[in-house]
Structures are given as structure tokens and as C-alpha cells.
Write a structure and sequence with these properties.
With 423 residues, the protein is α/β, with parallel strands linked by helices. It has 17 helices and eleven strands. A six-stranded mixed β-sheet has the order 6-7-8-9-11-10, with helices on both faces. The termini are far apart.
């Protein structure tokens, strides 16, 4: 062999062979499921590596192709993609990245985002084994995470981190709120800053967690900023009703903006309500300057089923503002941008009043379904009060009958004594 070829081969980096290369989203959900899946595969004796890193193992990493360079050091027998949705802004490029990787090894794609559903036929056409599940419990079952107790615990933490109410199929609400939610919240901090536990990427953390080298007790000592922030903004609640709170957080500093939804959730837990309406600055993520003020509407993920859905509450506002690109979010968490803080406060108050059912149904902006929900809540309260009154009346009537019975007995005894004396 010519020396130039020998030199070329010697300079070619060797790739690490693995049975499965798990590629997971960099958030708490993706990391938890990746760690749980690694345990399941290790228990079978498979060689496994976990890759999870911001921003490469997210939708943009798929569409930009950055992900391929991150996976290049490995020679897997198969890829397992977990919780990474197709980039809806550039689906063709995202699918091309998967197709290119599928030329190296088979890809098993596990996700639960509805936005993936239209792309499943295309993925199947390219030989990618894609599955999109209705909830995280179904996805965990498909990944066999419920077959191992430790893996199941990790999976439950991931479901709670993802705020998927389907987790109640596996555990109680009480346990979720008292144990799993605080743990998932601390994990959220760690995956944003893995150096807090001595690693560089979410993937490294997932591997060490799966191996037992990092435990819940270790990352459970991490401070969760939204807890303190919620206590701070609790003093800025300007309206509070039976199910909703409205808070003016228009002076929110930039460093706290990343925690807005989590802080609103903590505020709801603190106040015992189900929907938060907030006014916050609309920061530009690149320039960090304020480009308006947002009205954020968040519904607690374990709220009762008849609690209004934010997307439905502000459907008309979404239609008005979406043209200018000033709407983001999903059904349970909506953000709408306005030009001034005063305008945002005015809209926030309107939204709050709709939720509480305080506006008359003749106002054309009120959603009839929301009014019906408010009336139903009021009716349930009235019915409960009437039931209490009826129970009180029944108890009083029973006591009255007992008193009358005793009076009759006393009267009979008195009559009998009088008769005996007469005789």
C-alpha cells in the first residue's frame, strides 16, 4: 500500500461501535426518557451511548444538519431518536438529515408531538421506523421504560417535566405534586446548566444518571428560581377570582424571562388557582431589548377538565395579532404581544374577566362556551350550598322529631302518674 494511503488511514479517526446510539431532546423530558431507555438496554447487555446537547439535538439541529457532526464519532447498529420533533419551519431539511443518517444505520424515531403526524408517511417512505404517540405513557411503554422500576421512576419524572397529565395513569396526583413535580423542576435547572452537577451536556448527565453516578438526591439540592420568583410576584396580583389570577409583571428583568411559564405555574400552586394571566415585557431573544409587552395566559396542567383553555379564551385576539407574527404558544399557554404596557394591561383584564365569566354574554367577544363553563361553576356552587342547606334542614327536622318523641313520652308518663294518684 502506498505510504500516502497508509498515512491517510492512520489519520482517519476511528468511530466507537455501539449497539444503540440514543439521540434525545435536550430538555428534561428527553433526558429522562433517554436515561431510562439506556437502563433498559444495558440490562440486556447492549452497548449504548446517549447524545443530548443544545441546540443540536432539537428541531433546529435536525434542519440545520448540525446534528450529523455530533453523531459522527459513533458507529451504531441503530439510532434511537427520542422526543425530537421535526422542525415545522423547515421540515424538508429536517427529514433530509434523518434520511442521511438512515444510510449509516436504521433509525427508530419515537415522539409524541402532534406536529409530527403529517410527516410520518414521508419518514416511513424513507425507511425510518417512525412512531408518534398520543401521550408520554404510550411512548414510555413502546420504549419498554415501564418494565424496570428505576427506569419507570425516571420516565415518570420526564412525563411530569413535560407536564403531561397522562402521568396520572401511573401514579396519584398527590404523589405527582408532592414528589415528582419538585424533582422534575430541579431537573429542569440541571439540563439548562449541566455544569451544576459536574458535566458538560444533558447527554452526559443522562448517562451518569442512568448509571447511578448522579442521583436524585444530588440534583435535588439545586435551587429552582421560579419558587422564589412566584413568592415575589404574588404581591403583584391585581385580580383574583375563583379560578384565575391576574398579575402585572411588566417590570420583569431579562434574566427572569426564561422562567415566565414556570413562575406562573408556581404562582398558581401558591394561590390555589388554575389559570394565570400576566403582563410581561416582550424581549427580543437576540438583542435583549423590549419590543412590546406580552399578555401570557397559562392553564395549570392538572386543572379540572372544565377549566377554560387559553387558546379558546383568546381565539379572536390570536386571529387579530397572528397576521403580524405576535402570537406564540400552544393550547394551554398563549403569548400575545402588544405595543405598550397599558394596552397589554387592558387586554389582560379583558381576558381575566372572560375566564371568570364576569362579562355579560351579550358582549360579542365572549366565547359562549366560556360563559357556559362559568355558569356551570356557579350552578355547581349553588347546588352545593343548597345541598348543605337541605342537610342542615334534615338534621334539624330529625332533632325536632326526637324532641317531639320525648315530649310525648313525658306527657304519657305524667298522665299515667296522675291516673295512679286518682285511683
Amino acid at each position: 500500500m502506498p505510504m500516502s494511503l497508509i498515512h491517510a488511514y492512520s489519520q482517519t479517526p476511528s468511530r466507537k461501535p455501539v449497539n444503540a446510539l440514543i439521540v434525545a431532546h435536550f430538555d428534561s423530558h428527553g433526558v429522562s426518557f433517554a436515561a431510562a431507555r439506556a437502563r433498559v438496554l444495558w440490562n440486556r447487555g447492549e452497548e449504548v451511548e446517549i447524545i443530548s446537547k443544545f441546540p443540536e439535538t432539537g428541531p433546529q439541529g435536525l434542519s440545520s444538519g448540525q446534528l450529523k457532526a455530533l453523531l459522527d464519532p459513533y458507529a451504531p447498529q441503530r439510532y434511537e431518536f427520542i422526543d425530537i420533533p421535526i422542525d415545522v419551519r423547515n421540515p424538508d431539511a429536517a427529514i433530509k438529515t434523518l434520511v442521511d443518517l438512515a444510510m449509516i444505520a436504521p433509525i427508530y424515531y419515537y415522539d409524541h408531538h402532534e406536529t409530527d403526524v403529517p410527516f410520518v408517511p414521508r419518514l416511513h417512505h424513507h425507511g425510518i421506523y417512525a412512531s408518534v404517540f398520543g401521550d408520554n405513557v404510550a411512548m414510555a411503554a413502546a420504549l419498554e421504560l415501564l418494565t424496570d422500576n428505576v427506569a419507570k421512576e425516571m420516565a415518570i419524572i420526564g412525563m411530569v417535566a413535560d407536564r403531561d397529565a397522562a402521568v396520572l395513569k401511573l401514579t396519584s396526583r398527590e404523589l405527582v405534586e408532592q414528589h415528582y413535580l419538585p424533582t422534575a423542576n430541579k431537573l429542569d435547572v440541571v439540563v439548562r446548566n449541566p455544569r451544576l452537577v459536574g458535566v458538560n451536556t444533558p447527554g452526559e448527565f443522562a448517562k451518569r444518571w442512568a448509571l447511578g453516578e448522579i442521583g436524585v438526591a444530588q440534583f435535588g439540592s439545586v435551587q429552582y428560581p421560579p419558587e422564589e420568583l412566584a413568592r415575589e410576584i404574588s404581591g403583584r396580583v391585581v385580580e383574583e377570582g375563583s379560578i384565575a389570577v391576574m398579575v402585572d409583571w411588566s417590570d420583569q428583568p431579562l434574566q427572569h424571562s426564561q422562567w415566565t411559564p414556570k413562575t406562573l405555574e408556581q404562582l398558581l400552586l401558591l394561590r390555589g388557582r388554575f389559570i394565570a394571566v400576566a403582563v410581561v415585557p416582550g424581549y427580543n431573544p437576540r438583542t435583549h431589548t423590549i419590543q412590546g409587552y406580552d399578555v401570557r395566559v397559562l392553564r395549570y396542567w392538572l386543572a379540572p377538565s372544565d377549566t377554560p383553555v387559553p387558546e379558546e379564551v383568546v381565539r379572536d385576539l390570536i386571529a387579530q395579532r397572528a397576521i403580524s407574527g405576535n402570537v406564540v404558544g400552544h393550547a394551554d399557554y398563549v403569548s400575545i404581544r402588544f405595543s405598550s404596557a397599558e394596552e397589554a394591561r387592558r387586554v389582560a383584564r379583558t381576558v381575566y374577566q372572560r375566564i371568570e365569566g364576569m362579562q355579560p354574554s351579550s358582549v360579542h367577544l365572549v366565547n359562549d362556551a366560556l360563559v357556559a363553563q362559568a355558569i356551570r361553576r356557579d350552578f355547581q356552587q349553588i347546588l352545593q350550598r343548597l345541598t348543605e342547606i337541605l342537610e342542615t334542614q334534615q338534621r334539624m327536622y330529625t332533632e325536632y322529631l326526637e324532641l317531639k318523641r320525648r315530649q310525648v313520652e313525658l306527657l304519657e308518663q305524667s298522665t299515667e302518674e296522675q291516673r295512679r294518684r286518682y285511683d
